[in-house]
């Protein structure tokens, strides 16, 4: 489950329109595709609704009797219902939302975290962002305590100094190999903090340790194959890897490659490169920052919907989601690719996901890595992704 955070991290901070916000601009030529996207969303939500358990949690239909280990796995489908562009899901499935929010808040801990057994930092970040949308006054003290908890999880004075400034899974219930910062957890923590700032502007936090944004940016930079900014020995500027990202400094979930000059490079891959790009955006780097432009260049050269570049089918649906979130956040409706063409990525990805949806409304990966054989998890990814796309059409 090392990349479980990665698979969910980018989902949780997708923008949602408030009543006072204007509706997104619509292209009349996209009306038919928008209707298809909405239909796929509705079918996906119907599948998810059928998987909700009496306690409010959502269960993998293959293992419905298993005790839930992570409130984040309920927070995800709850957010999918809450963000339905038609508004129908939030109205017609109010009971689904009420039960889901109740399950999530029931796992708030005295230390401010929201978790069950482990992955405390990750579960707290995801769960807090779900509760930010509940509209229930009883959640306010839970949200504030969670925000303080997340801010206190940033690493400092680590034995490996290159990991300072990042965020890990959290020590609670985690194995030693997880007790170090990585780009996945850093992304979800920054998303959670940004979501809190947007939803609760001007909120005063109690005195104490909180986020050091410069240290976070430095950590993210040390995850990028860009020797002009990342001075670690492993960083490579060979054409296959330059500008892309790895899981944490000195380690990739992809592969190592031997370069023509005999050096060994850590392979950049799609999910973490979108994760790094989004992390820089949340840290308020400008679009013309060389680190941002280098990441976009790698993503442009490696654009595909047939695989998660560098990882094959592993994490494929997470890759789809991060692609939608990253490009939408940057305000890009088209992405230039290697052959000089410009891809209408919202249309491209919408048609891909619609074509992959199963008859029962679900989606699932045929590759099990990172829990993508769980149809509830993957369907949550896809519904949330299509909700982002719907607002781009």
Describe this structure in words.
This protein is mainly α and 393 residues long. The protein has one domain: Alpha/alpha barrel (Glycosyltransferase). 44% of the residues lie in helices and 3% in strands. It is built from 14 helices and 4 strands. The chain has helices at residues 4-9, 31-50, 72-82, 88-92, 94-105, 120-131, 140-151, 183-199, 213-221, 270-282, 290-301, 316-329, 345-356, 375-390; strands at 256-258, 264-266, 335-336, 342-343. It has a two-stranded antiparallel sheet with strand order 1-2. It has a two-stranded antiparallel sheet with strand order 3-4. The two termini are 34 Å apart. The model is unreliable at 1-22 (pLDDT under 50).
The fraction of residues in strands falls at under 5%
Distance between the termini: 34 Å
Helix content: 40-55%
Write out the strand line-up for the largest beta sheet, numbering strands in chain order: 1-2
By secondary-structure content and strand pairing, the structural class works out as mainly alpha
Anisotropy-based shape: globular
Mean pLDDT: 89
Order of helices and strands: HHHHHHHHHEEHHHEEHH
Domain module count:
1
Any idea of the CATH topology?
A: Glycosyltransferase
Uncertain runs: 1-22
**Major sheet description:** 2 strands, antiparallel
CATH architecture: Alpha/alpha barrel
CATH class equals Mainly Alpha
Gyration radius, to the nearest Å? Answer: 20 Å
